[in-house]
UniProtKB/TrEMBL annotation:
ATP binds at residue 39. CDD domains: STKc_PknB_like. Residues 10-275 form the Protein kinase domain. Keywords: ATP-binding, Kinase, Nucleotide-binding, Serine/threonine-protein kinase, Transferase. It comes from Streptomyces luteolus. The lineage of its organism: Bacteria, Bacillati, Actinomycetota, Actinomycetes, Kitasatosporales. This is non-specific serine/threonine protein kinase.
Amino acid sequence: MSGRLISGRYELSQQIGQGGMGQVWTAYDQRLDRRVAVKLLRPDRVAGGEADELRRRFVRECRVTAQVDHPGLVTVHDAGSDGDDLFLVMQHVDGTDLADHIERHKPYPWPWAVAVAAQLCAVLCAVHAVPIVHRDLKPRNVMVKPDGTLTVLDLGVASVMDTDTTRLTHTGSPIGSPAYMAPEQAMGGAVGPYTDLYALGILLYELLSGNVPFDGATVLGVLHSHLYETPIPVRGKRPEIPEPLEALVNRLLAKEPGDRPDSAQEVYEALAPLLPGRGTPTGMLDPTRPFLRPGAPWPDRAGTPTPVPVPPRPTAPPSAEVPVALSEVARAVDDVKRLLGEGRVTQAVDLLGAILPTAEAQHGPRSTVVRTLRKQYAATLMDDGQYRRALPELRRLADERSAEAGQADPASLQFRYEMAQCLEQLGEPAAALAEYRSLLPFYENQYVASTVGDPGAALELRRRIGQLLLALGDRAGAHDTLARLLYDAERVHGPGHPLPGEIRRTLHWLGQVRG
């Protein structure tokens, strides 16, 4: 496949990685005359009609992750489809992956481990603020550049392949890297920032001890260890490691998400006193270098010139100006529809946010026009992954509709359902669970079911409750919820439907690990 031209622009050069559903290639961008990395995914390897859903989610996740601006994240240049393949074009990162870096420098100096973890915390802070969960943080997805800085790869791609699409594999095995996978993720529970912090703890343990804390011959064996075994303390292997660092690792590896640190910011603050002071790096690819010599040029490499740092990408001017004031709201609504039809969701969000104050001034805050715009604004914010901004809009819509039409009104229930989805995406499982549970009686009421016209809505809500119970460590409650859900899902959809199949696999995992 070397020499193949992707999207009429990217010429594949050398394959540098391969997985179950895709490949990674170095490539040449003919238009801008630069090297890039191209990841190819094969949705045609997914059974049935799920391939179209995978394509849709892939494009959405690439768009959302491209909005994250942080020097520790690989830059996304382009994404789309080419024939049967989905492609993601990324910055070509010069350096070595962290797994090879660990292997070359065993035993890994503990100050290096602190520097690596601190850099990863900085990246996770930016990612979780969006909010995005990486879901597959591991050494192979981290590059160490010549100046010692780290670059995290595969942001967004893992979320397409994880959780909601586990049924796409039809294998019954969790997607991801079991050695670095949090228990709630492996069993199909809801994921959040706490899931990435667990993976960070596994990675930090490996840096300090030379091995992952939980290993085994089978995926089930590894999962059982994650759930029930206590790792050997890292100071038992290397006494020179500071006690506060060992305590932090233990907190990150807590079995229940609520026992882990609250955020990547908290982890960074715990690591900061352990970072090396100003001085001279010990050599090339030294991850302490950014702390010892902040902003220093890249080191010379024998036989090769010093690389010239790539200047930051200029911010392209928007293709259409966002109006500050509009005399005709209808014209702006037409522009929003056009932008959404062209897939320009971020621009549509900006336009809707700009026209709302004008519409309120012209028509009144409770007018049908304004409420329609605000509903579109909230829905577009969610589609753009901006859950933090969507949440107050949905709460206001839900409160107003409920006050006028009652709590059982289908529109009010839908706004509250979307509020719970935002809370779930923002890594607040307890709040999301409480909201879903308060909604469940309404969705199970025959009047609401007949009004909404979707008997599967209550089943999906119960599935989310089961996933959140798993995320919160209530495996007995999750098992009871999902077992009852399986019976009803088979009755409504039939045993061959993807939903009962997904529930059966989760119950199988729960049954296997309960003892």
